[in-house]
Specification:
single chain, alpha/beta, nine-stranded mixed β-sheet, eight-stranded parallel beta barrel, globular, binds alpha-L-arabinofuranose
């Protein structure tokens, strides 16, 4: 065990940590919506108006601040009018991107808004630029948000919702460099302007228009998009996507080097945030545009025995560390990043919950989102980690990652410190120093770890990995031992 130092600089704020950094994403893909969130009113699986109650209850505890829908790639082939009106009359369409199965449109705009209301999440609608029209997106906005007596608002009322939905967040397309129309940045900028011109703040919905940003940390897309956009002001958020991918054959099969390799790739989110925010600053020196990462997470190889187009994957301790490393990076850039949405909320990629028939399990990633809740609305403060690095190899190449990493925030007198120990086998002993003289009066915490690096929950062993609550005594100096392969959330009441 080696000694390290974590210095928390209480007087060096990094920005208020918006709850929206813990946002979620649900797409018409595999069993995310059909089977995961939505079973329909006729189902034998207990449900509230078609939304399965076990999943609703589990997700409500996470208090998801915002939910993005209907895609993803699906969004640029989605026509919102398919998903309103009596369900039996809704058209059956082919889901082009995700296995070409039938989309019955039983889960549409009203069902999505009901879901958001049950969860307490703000809705975030991704509009169709790729195969839609400006008129279509502008009409969807009027249908959702207009409080007056227009034909579209009346139609919303006839469909059961006389009051407007007040949707603020609107994405102008998704991945428009790829499945959203294969645009070059200049052409997308022109499309963005054309759409945004007609997307207006109706009935005080506090419109927040979001442009499609780069695939990963692609500086060229950002430079060329903003150069072409010129001074066009109707843009509030700019959304990158970053999937850290995988290392090793699957979510639950990897060796120790592959364990580190994936964690190191997760850590590259920070580089994206640093470089993209610097680029944004050159075009938006007054920092009016918020940086968003509206898709992120791990993406493992297809799971044998499952439809590869449905992106179902297990979720293990390693994925939980990826989530923690990423959320900590967001906290460190809380002054610039305004929203992030992990992909996806159920049964797809790095999910919070997995379902099978009427059974549901919570994933290790779910537990991380739960453990990180105390950071929300806290003031991020700089935390300096002085720790030895961990060396590992990717083939012949030698690489390294930091021996401990994390973030800190303060709310009144309550300090939250989250720390990841990525070491596969060694605990890390650290002194935690509070710069600026504060002392710890009370201490509590929670821990997610396991002896097995590939630990995960299954329908037969749903609690194989779960959160442990820590009983702690404040000491001076404050020392803490972070177990190997762990995520720790410490809560301290300060003087
Ligand atoms: O989340 C799965 C897919 O990944 C989304 O549909 C797309 O936007 C991204 O490529």
């Amino acid at each position: 065990m080696s000694a390290s130092t974590i210095t928390i600089c209480l007087n060096e704020p990094t920005g208020i940590i918006r709850p929206e950094l813990h946002g979620q994403f649900a797409e018409h893909l595999g069993a995310c919506i059909d089977g995961g969130l939505w079973v329909g009113e006729e189902s034998r699986i207990p449900n509230l108006g078609g939304l399965r109650t076990d999943v609703l209850e589990a997700l409500r505890k996470l208090r998801p601040p915002v939910l993005r829908w209907p895609g993803g790639c699906f969004a640029d082939d989605y026509h919102w009018e398919d998903g309103i009106g009596p369900r039996r009359e809704r058209p059956r369409r082919v889901n082009l991107w995700w296995g070409q199965g039938i989309e019955d449109n039983h889960f549409g705009t009203h069902e999505f808004i009901h879901l958001c209301r049950y969860l307490g999440a703000k809705p975030y609608l991704a509009g169709n630029v790729g195969s839609g029209t400006v008129r279509e997106m502008r009409d969807w906005m009027e249908y959702c948000n207009y409080a007056g007596d227009s034909t579209l608002a009346r139609r919303r009322g006839l469909n059961g919702s006389p009051l407007p939905f007040g949707v603020s967040y609107w994405g102008v397309g998704n991945e428009n460099w790829g499945c959203g129309g294969n645009f070059c940045p200049e052409d997308y900028a022109a499309e963005y302007k054309r759409h945004a011109t007609y997307l207006r703040d109706l009935s005080g919905a506090n419109l927040f228009l979001i442009a499609c940003g780069p695939d990963g940390n692609n500086a060229d897309w950002t430079r060329r998009f903003f150069s072409k956009l010129g001074g066009f002001p109707r843009i509030y958020g700019y959304a990158a996507h970053y999937y850290c991918g995988t290392a090793g054959p699957s979510a639950i099969q990897f060796d120790t080097n592959q364990w580190y390799e994936l964690l190191e790739k997760a850590g590259r989110m920070e580089q994206l945030l640093i470089e993209q925010r610097a680029l944004l600053d050159t075009f938006d020196p007054q920092r009016k545009i918020g940086l968003i990462v509206d898709e992120w997470g791990v993406w493992h190889f297809p799971t044998p025995g499952r439809n590869a187009a449905h992106l179902w994957q297990q979720n293990a301790l390693r994925d939980a560390l990826v989530a923690a490393i990423t959320l900590d990076a967001f906290n460190r850039h809380a002054d610039k990043i305004v929203m992030a949405n992990i992909a996806q909320i159920a049964n797809v990629l790095q999910a919070m919950v997995l379902t099978e028939g009427d059974r549901m399990i919570l994933t290790p990633t779910y537990h991380v989102f739960d453990m990180y809740q105390p950071h929300r609305e806290g003031r991020g403060v700089r935390a300096e980690f002085t720790v030895p690095a961990i060396a590992f190899a990717v083939g012949e190449e030698k690489r390294q990652i930091a021996g401990l990493c994390g973030s800190a925030s303060i709310k009144g007198k309550a300090l939250t410190l989250t720390v990841v120990n990525p070491h596969a086998t060694l605990p890390m002993d650290a002194n935690v120093e509070l710069r600026d003289g504060a002392r710890v009066m009370e201490l509590s915490g929670s821990l997610l770890t396991h002896d097995d690096l590939a630990a995960h929950n299954t329908f037969d062993a749903p609690d194989a990995i779960s959160v442990q609550h820590l009983v702690l005594e404040p000491t001076l100096p404050w020392r803490h031992t972070f177990p190997p392969a762990s995520i720790t959330a410490l809560r301290a009441r300060l003087t």
